[in-house]
Design goal:
Elements (H helix, E strand, L loop, with lengths): L60 H13 L2 E5 L6 H12 L7 E5 L9 H8 L10 H9 L4 E6 L5 H14 L3 E7 L8 E5 L21 H13 L10 H10 L4 H9 L6 H16 L8 H14 L3 H9 L7 E2 H8 L8 H10 L4 E5 L2 E5 L2 H14 L2 H21 L6 H10 L1 H13 L4 H18 L2 H13 L7 H16 L3 H14 L6 H17 L3 H17 L4 H18 L2 H18 L3 H16 L3 H17 L3 H15 L4 H18 L1 H9 L1 H14 L1 H12 L3 H10 L16 H11 L4 H8 L3 H15 L4 H15 L11
Parallel strand pairs: 1-4, 1-5, 2-3, 3-4
Antiparallel strand pairs: 6-8, 7-8
Helix pairs in contact: 1-2, 4-5, 6-8, 7-9, 8-10, 9-10, 11-13, 11-14, 12-15, 15-17, 15-18, 17-18, 18-19, 18-20, 19-20, 20-21, 20-22, 21-22, 22-23, 22-24, 23-24, 24-25, 24-26, 25-26, 26-27, 26-28, 27-28, 28-29, 28-31, 28-33, 29-31, 29-32, 29-33, 31-32, 32-37, 34-36, 34-37, 35-36
Organism: Rhodococcus wratislaviensis (Tsukamurella wratislaviensis)
GO molecular function: DNA binding
Protein name: HTH luxR-type domain-containing protein
Length: 820
């Protein structure tokens, strides 16, 4: 989380009349994790999430060209090969070079950190921005989303999840004609239509007949060694004195990129000749004096072993211990779990040494640093760890650390540190899953699993991870069949809510009754707050808003008497306000909204203040104050954007459509389409509740009546094609309808019209330049002239103008050419 998000303290929270200064929707505050293969930035745009390369890409020209050619001919290409041969780097380079060809972008799905086959589809959906709340099969929802998309999916490190990945790939390819998949795996997926190419090692020189000093860098392995050598020792250069040693190092390592990078990193402490001597000794040991070279898998293993042996005992010990993490980690977690209690202060130095030796990869995630280890290095060190007997104790420390982390996050989820906790738990999801798996695999740890799932529920609800939340709650409850207790009752109440959110209201009511039968502590105010909160939402989902208000009041009263019930207090105020919206009571809804802003704002909340904006805006709109209603909505969109909450943005867009209907029906139609796109991705009972309100149908009917069915559908489809970011931009760009006549199409030159069409498709200046083979500056100049000629101030206005021009030129949709 950046510094700005820390400034929202109790005194700085806005009222609904004084919008807080928040960065614009495209600000960096919404960015997710750091660079690198394992932590792609989560984006909601249309260009994808491919990470920026932290080190230069060397060679592989032939492999890149061949893979591109295969990808153009086959919709599934799998790059296979041993670990460390460079499959991921090759896939990312091909994807980066090819992403312009995919209208909906190229997306990296990193699977190495996932061990649960049931979560494969969910992880893919999450990367694509789908947080669907429904009970429908995840694969059906994913294929529905991808059915009309033109997209490249990069499924990285599939070998340990082959069956699940193969099933997903086969279904997606069969039902989504615009999707292509580039996979990396140590073995093929074995899906019909799969094209498989084995990634070879890099070219190496003949160690006995090394080429000239000038010709040696032409070998890919040598070029890689030299680039990484200069990164380690900036003064390093290839000379006549070291050229033979460099050539022999690359040949000894069989041209495998990972061992070459490990060797180059050693130049910080030894010369290239010393590196060669040590490698030669190990090579003779490996081959037993035979002239026959070992296979490359053995070469890889002994080169890693060589790096391991060159580490100090402290470095070896930490390298092995760090394999307890399922994904990247931060320094405080490493110190608590892997550090020696009597020498904790040394750990940072040891971590730094492992980074210098290329064992750990340092990544920046917002304003924190995380570290990760390549899978092949982790596998080697895990074997070493098993030999030490330390693994059981490390696993226990790992679980204890993450259980404590969850407890702290749950207590602080409504606070000025809310975004910090949400982002941190997002980054830690693979480790959290590993901790839950461990708790469920050990009979003595089942209670810990129960507490962790309960503690993670506010995070799952706030982030929209409803399906995963219900999965884990179901699992921990299954481990406690026939038992009773407070934690079990909490889990049952929460899983009943998750079922209701997914639309499985009858199941939710049944689970609620089971929870009531276990709850034997009537004086526990926090339990009463939870029970009233859950009962209120289930009543709301059952269209019983009167009962919902009563239950929410019960929850609010109990939360006021209880410590640590802020989450239930805030969200019950939200539910109560929604109940009054459905009852048509604007006065009471406005009071709920004001109370919620006063409480949640003082506590430092972003998520639920953003979601509540539609309640306050609706109330002011009902009173005829459109200006104030719009101000509340705009503030809500800002807060939801800061929280990366597409559900909250959808609520605000939906309400903004109602507000704009009388003033600008065309704008309302676009907003309804934009909200509908979010509801398709989110789904669930609450989306159905909002679109089932009379205000939604009244808005649509009025816009259709004024615009006519054809123009309404065109504008609606225009909005439904928006990304979430584009929809936010549109909401802030809405201007009063111009009094003057809309500019004619002849106002623009032929080239300007081409550029305008690409602007309407959502392309950036850079993408337009690539598409038209012009410079980025030229593309920018065209866009600026278009805005000037049309008298507009935003790219969204250009897109809207084009829609109007198409309708005027050809009002018959049957003969009109489709434009995306």
């Amino acid at each position: 989380m950046n510094d700005e998000s820390n400034r929202a303290g109790p005194a700085g929270r806005p009222t609904e009349l004084t919008p807080m200064p928040v960065p614009p929707p495209d600000a960096k505050a919404r960015s997710g994790g750091g660079s690198g293969n394992s932590m792609p930035v989560r984006g909601r745009g249309r260009t994808g999430n491919l990470p920026v390369e932290l080190t230069s890409f060397v060679g592989r020209r032939h492999e890149v060209g061949e893979t591109k050619k295969m990808l153009s001919a086959s919709r599934l290409v799998t790059l296979t090969g041993i670990g460390g041969v460079g499959k991921t780097r090759l896939a990312l380079r091909v994807a980066t070079d090819s992403q312009r060809a995919f209208t909906d972008g190229a997306w990296l799905i990193e699977l190495s950190e996932l061990s649960d086959p049931e979560l494969v589809t969910g992880v893919v959906s999450d990367v694509l921005g789908l947080r669907n709340h429904t009970v429908d099969a995840p694969l059906v929802l994913l294929t529905d989303h991808l059915a009309d998309k033109d997209v490249l999916l990069v499924l990285d490190n599939c070998e340990h999840l082959l069956e699940s990945v193969a099933a997903l790939a086969a279904t997606v390819l069969r039902t989504c004609p615009g999707v292509r998949i580039l996979a990396t795996s140590r073995e093929p997926l074995r899906v019909r239509g799969e094209a498989v190419t084995r990634v070879p090692p890099m070219q190496t020189p003949d160690p006995d007949h090394a080429p000239s000093l000038r010709g040696l860098p032409g070998y890919e392995s040598v070029a890689l060694f030299l680039q990484r050598a200069v990164a380690a020792v900036p003064t390093f250069e290839l000379t006549e004195d070291n050229q033979v040693a460099v050539a022999q190092v690359c040949a000894r390592l069989d041209g495998l990129p990972l061992p070459i990078e490990l060797a180059a990193a050693r130049l910080r402490v030894m010369s290239v000749h010393q590196i060669l001597d040590r490698l030669t000794d190990r090579y003779r040991l490996l081959t037993g004096g035979s002239r026959a070279a070992p296979d490359r898998q053995k070469t890889l293993r002994w080169s890693i072993g060589w790096s391991y042996e060159l580490c100090t005992p402290q470095e070896q010990r930490l390298w092995a211990r760090l394999t307890v993490f399922a994904c990247s980690f931060e320094l405080d977690a490493a110190e608590a779990i892997c550090g020696d209690d009597d020498r904790g202060g040394d750990l940072l130095d040891v971590v730094s040494a492992l980074v210098d030796k290329s064992i750990l990869i340092r990544e920046e995630a917002g304003d924190v640093v995380r570290y990760r280890m390549l899978d092949i290095l982790k596998e080697y060190a895990q074997e070493k760890l098993q030999l030490t007997g330390e693994y059981p104790n490390l696993r226990r420390r790992f679980q204890d650390w993450y259980q404590e982390l969850i407890t702290r996050a749950a207590a602080d989820i409504i606070s000025p540190r809310q975004l910090h906790w949400l982002d941190l738990l997002d980054r830690e999801q693979p480790n959290l899953r590993a901790a839950l798996h461990f708790a469920l695999s050990e009979p003595d740890e089942a209670d810990a699993g129960l507490r962790m799932a309960v503690g993670l529920s506010p995070f799952w609800l706030s982030r929209g991870y409803v399906r995963e939340g219900r999965l884990w709650l179901d699992r921990v409850l299954a481990a406690h069949v026939g038992e009773s207790g407070a934690d079990l009752a909490k889990a049952l109440y929460l899983v009943s809510l998750f079922a209701g959110v997914q639309g499985d209201v009858a199941e939710g009511v049944g689970l609620l009754a089971r929870a009531d039968s276990l709850e034997d502590r009537p004086g526990d105010t926090s339990m009463r707050a939870l029970r009233g909160f859950v009962r209120g939402f289930l009543a709301l989902y059952n269209s019983d808003s009167v009962s919902a208000v009563m239950y929410f009041d019960e929850a609010i009263g109990a939360a006021q008497e209880s410590e640590g019930a802020d989450f239930f207090h805030v969200v019950s105020l939200l539910g109560k306000g929604l109940s009054y919206v459905s009852l048509g009571d604007a006065s009471k809804a406005r009071v709920c909204h004001a109370e919620m802003l006063a409480l949640a704002g003082a506590l430092g909340d972003f998520v639920y203040c953003g979601r509540s904006a539609m309640i306050g805006a609706w109330a002011w709109w009902c009173d005829g104050d459109r200006t104030r209603a719009r101000a509340v909505i705009e503030e809500g969109i800002r807060l939801s954007t800061r929280a990366d909450d597409s559900f909250g943005i959808g609520c605000s867009l939906e309400a903004l459509a109602w507000i704009e209907a009388d003033h600008d029906p065309g704008c309302a139609a676009v907003l309804l389409g934009a909200a509908a796109a979010i509801w398709r991705n989110v789904g669930g009972t609450m989306a159905n509740y909002l679109t089932g309100l009379s205000y939604h149908s009244d808005c649509e009917q009025h816009a259709r009546r004024v615009l006519g069915d054809r123009q309404f559908e065109e504008k609606y489809q225009h909005g439904s094609a928006f990304s979430v970011d584009n929809a936010v931009g549109y909401a802030f760009d809405i201007q009063p309808a111009p009094a003057k006549k809309s500019p004619e199409v002849g106002t623009l030159s032929r080239r300007e019209r081409q550029v305008a069409e690409l602007v309407a498709e959502g392309l950036t200046n850079r993408a337009i330049a690539a598409k038209l083979v012009i410079s980025q500056r030229t593309a920018q100049g065209h866009v600026e002239r278009i805005l000037s000629k049309l008298g507009y101030t935003s790219r969204t206005q250009i897109a809207t103008w084009l829609v109007e021009q198409r309708h005027q030129q050809n009002p018959d949709p049957e003969t009109r050419t489709h434009h995306s």
